[in-house]
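Pilot study result, target chain (105 residues):
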Amino acid sequence: MSGKRLVTESDVRALARGAELVVPPDTIVTPAALDLAFERGVRIVRSKSDAPKSGACACGGACSAGGQPCAWSKLLGSDGTYVVVVKNGVASIARLTEQGPVPFS
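Predicted structure:
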């Protein structure tokens, strides 16, 4: 694992609430760190060199057929607050607006 970095819960705890943490593409962020970042309003951002290479999928290979970007790519491309509900193995995503949740497509 040479050259990789690990971000843990204690790293996030050391940041101010609402801070932004920019991490290199090869950085591993633990699930506990992600949970705490969410609770504290800390935004974790991958550096620009994390963009997928031509023909690669930002969804980890789960892009939809027909060359359409997957929901994950669309989410990463638009800042906002979202709610993800998973029911019977199917995820639905809504963007939170002042008028309430709006389905994300």
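One observation from the pilot: Residues 50-56 have pLDDT under 50 and may be disordered. A full batch analysis is planned for the follow-on phase.
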